[in-house]
Design brief:
This protein is about 25% helix and about 25% strand. The protein is of the alpha+beta class. The protein folds into two domains: about 55 residues; about 220 residues, Metal-dependent hydrolases (TIM Barrel). The strands form three sheets. Strands 2, 3, 4, 11, 12, 13, 14, 15, 16, 17 and 18 form an eleven-stranded mixed beta sheet that branches. Strands 5, 6, 7, 8, 9 and 10 form a six-stranded mixed beta sheet that branches. Helix 1 packs antiparallel against helix 8. The mean pLDDT is about 95.
């Protein structure tokens, strides 16, 4: 009985400390109201992009790691071989809390890992650094928890920070994206989940969040797990610096790749050799957006504030849209007959003299929460001491 009491006290204490650390010791943030994009100037991330130099990338893939404790099958070599055979220019292995160094000597190697192990899968893609952050909050996260983790991950300025699959388990809601700051991109497209409401919420609040599209692959031997989505980045070469620059500047777009049912891996290899529709150009003349694609799209949609569709053109490879005075941003989606779709980053208004207010730590609120946390732990310690002392008598 005495041993059981000790086990119960220790187990309860660990759970209580984890909860207090997350909900009471975490810095408490204030979130100023963000405003939609505004200004007389219009930013076009594709201003200098041409029809060539597009690099096909996947930044989210898992292999066998941590002795099989995490979800991932196969070796890094097998993963690299599959994506090389599919024609990808860049393919990162993003194991949980671990940078896989396979292929480190290759010019297209980019270190990456997936951060997070909480209940609601509040995961982040950390791309371009060997430095791993092992901290996280286990239980369902408050907005302050989410912002604190983003701030911790920002400590490495060279990395691209992406919020992975936010729609999964509603880990990061559209309302959260109205206020969060400190990330570069959102994994809008992932096999099985699409996070368009979250993306449009961030854009509608004036946050220049760019798209990432990934496979989130866990078994490279399965054709239905690879080559489902990809990110195309305009870069002269598939080197780390150029790819990261393209991601951070928005000179990239996401793609859902058509996936015929029952396709074998060899059939997929052959199909990928035929290529994909691509962006030729996106230009702004006056207040008019002009898009040109390499193939005829079934529909070209112009989507603006709040995710509202503003205009649609059908059966064309080119289209134009007048950027109206009330428009804050416009992003373009092109759908093709075979099921492939392209999702461009937003073109948006800006004024260099106006800066969005950033979340900040509310020192008074943080101090009060931490005092409350210390009191909770003290009460538990006293109760545990009395219980164990009574047991020993």
């Amino acid at each position: 009985m005495r041993i059981l009491r000790w086990i119960l006290v220790v187990f309860t204490g660990l759970i209580l400390y984890a909860a207090v650390n997350q909900y009471l010791f975490c810095p408490q943030y204030s979130f100023p109201r963000h405003h939609p994009f505004a200004g007389t100037s219009i930013f076009n991330p594709y201003e200098h992009a041409d029809s060539v130099n597009w690099k096909q990338c996947n930044f989210h893939a898992h292999v066998h790691a941590w002795g099989g404790l995490t979800h991932g099958s196969g070796t890094a070599a097998e993963c690299w071989n599959v994506y090389d055979s599919l024609g990808y220019d860049v393919h990162c292995i993003s194991d949980y809390e671990k940078v896989n160094r396979y292929g480190e000597g290759e010019p297209n190697f980019i270190p990456a890992y997936e951060h997070g192990y909480g209940m609601l899968k509040n995961h982040h893609g950390v791309i371009g650094t060997f430095r791993v952050n092992y901290g996280d909050y286990i239980f369902p996260q408050t907005l302050s928890n989410k912002q604190h983790m983003l701030d911790c991950l920002q400590e490495n300025d060279s990395a691209v920070i992406a919020i992975n699959h936010p729609v999964l388990r509603n880990g990061v809601s559209p309302d959260d994206f109205l206020r969060l700051h400190g990330y570069d991109a959102i994994e809008v497209l992932r096999s099985g989940t699409h996070s368009f409401p979250q993306w449009d919420s961030a854009l509608s609040s004036g946050h220049a969040a760019y798209i990432i599209a990934d496979d989130d692959m866990h078994d490279s031997s399965r054709p239905n797990e690879v080559g489902k989505n990809c990110t195309w980045i305009h870069a002269q070469s598939a080197t780390r610096n150029e790819i990261l620059t393209g991601l951070k500047s928005g000179n990239a777009y996401g793609m859902i790749i058509a996936s015929p049912k029952g396709e074998t891996m060899q059939q997929k290899f052959q199909r990928f050799k035929s290529g994909f529709p691509k962006l030729n150009s996106l230009r702004i003349t006056g207040d008019t957006l002009k898009i040109s694609l390499s193939a005829t799209a079934h529909a070209i949609r112009f989507i603006g504030q709040g995710g509202q569709e503003k205009f649609m053109a059908q059966q064309t490879a080119t289209s134009a849209y007048y950027f109206q005075p009330a428009d804050t941003y416009i992003r373009i989606q092109a759908d093709f007959d075979d099921g492939t779709s392209i999702f461009l980053n937003p073109v948006f208004r800006f004024d260099e003299s106006v800066q969005q207010p950033l979340p900040f730590i509310n020192q008074t609120r943080t101090a009060l929460f931490r005092i409350a946390g210390a009191v909770v732990l003290l009460i538990f310690a006293v109760a545990a001491f009395r219980l164990l002392r009574k047991t020993s008598l």
